[in-house]
Amino acid sequence: MQSKLSDIELITKTLAGNQSAYTDLVKRHQRFIFTLAMRFTKNREDAEEVAQDTFVKAYRLLNTFKQESKFSTWLYTIVYTSAMTSLRKKRLDTTSIDNEDTHIQIKNTSTGYDVNSAENRSRSFHLNQAIEQLSTDDATIITLFYKGEQSIEEIAQVLSIEANTVKVKLFRARQRLKEKLERNLKHEVKELI
Amino acid sequence: MSSIEEKLWEYIDGTCTAAEREAVEKLIADNDIYRQKYEELLAFNKAISADIELDEPMMAFTYNVMDAIRTDYAMQHPLKTRVNKTLIWVIGGLFTVILLLAFVIFLTSLSWQTDVNMHANDLHFMIFKGGDVWQAFLFFDTILLLFVLNRFLRNRISHQQS
């Protein structure tokens, strides 16, 4: 069972030497951090490594967290940096937001779905499939905005870009997501939206 | 970029100004194309909010993270700084007590009733001439005492300086 204490309370306890408080923080944020890492690395193994590295770095730097932003925003900044470092190390090309042709298609990345089941034809499955087909930047911005509960300004902080740029990128990402859905589900898209 | 869509998204996201918001609300109310587009985008927005699934890391993820943290901590804080100082004091104290006890037993075992000069000489002989073990023991104690004294004075000086 996860702790009902706030992030700040858990951080205070962790800084006082209570390691189990940090375990609660990890449990609380691990799914989102892992999802974000997946958006960057497009690979479960690398995503696990990036997510783990993020939490280790966060623990090491916890006393530098000034509480001027949300803990999640601070954590997402670390996952972004860790993912970029990991990608650089692996000499992978990060795709540009405006370059649709360089999108990486994910194959065999298990997200817990069984392709043949009826459930897979659900709206959720198709939406997540379309997100996976987006570029890293598009998928990250959409995930941060809709699941990370981050404002435009907070996303700008995480990605180290201007808030107006985030606004434009989010607008384009949503357009591209809609196009992907329409392409994937020519007949079902009307039902979906 | 469609300016209609752009304005509508800003309205849905709540990132437009009060004046822009008012203008968009008026357009939605008066213009069928705006209203239709707004409803379409709103439904799409709700679908994204509700249907994005978060990926699940492997079950041992939390354990692995905490294990990595412990390893990282151990690497950054070597054993030297993690030795409990109380333990050192306990060992030191025990050593001192044993030393004193041995000395007391030695003193009580001496027979002071008989030829004092001879026994005093015995003690002198035992320590300085005859007993190799005793000489080594006393030498070790002296070194240890000097070492402890040195540490104590150094700590005191550094404490005063800080």
Taking the sheet with the most strands of chain B, its summary is: none
Shape of chain A: globular
The fraction of residues assigned to DSSP E strands of chain A is: under 5%
Strand content of chain B: under 5%
Quick one: how many beta strands of chain A?
A: 0
Point out poorly predicted stretches of chain B: none
Largest sheet properties of chain A: none
Distance between the terminal alpha carbons of chain A, to the nearest Å?
A: 36 Å
**Mean pLDDT score of chain A:** 80
- Secondary-structure-based class of chain B equals mainly alpha
The helix/strand series of chain B, from N terminus to C terminus, equals HHHHHHHH
- Helix tally of chain B equals 8
Report low-confidence residues of chain A grouped into runs of 5 or more: 96-120
Determine the most extensive contact between two protein chains.
A-B, 41 and 30 residues
Radius of gyration of chain B: 42 Å
How big is the Rg of chain A? 18 Å
The helix count of chain A comes to: 9
* Number of beta strands of chain B: 0
Task: Describe the secondary-structure layout.
The complex is a heterodimer of chains A (193) and B (162).
Chain A (H helix, E strand, L loop, with lengths): L6 H9 L3 H23 L2 H17 L10 H19 L33 H11 L2 H11 L5 H8 L3 H22 L4 H4 L1
Helix pairs in contact in A: 1-2, 2-3, 2-4, 2-6, 3-4, 4-7, 5-8, 6-8, 7-8
Chain B lengths: L2 H11 L4 H13 L1 H20 L9 H16 L2 H4 L2 H25 L6 H15 L1 H30 L1
Helix pairs in contact in B: 1-3, 2-3
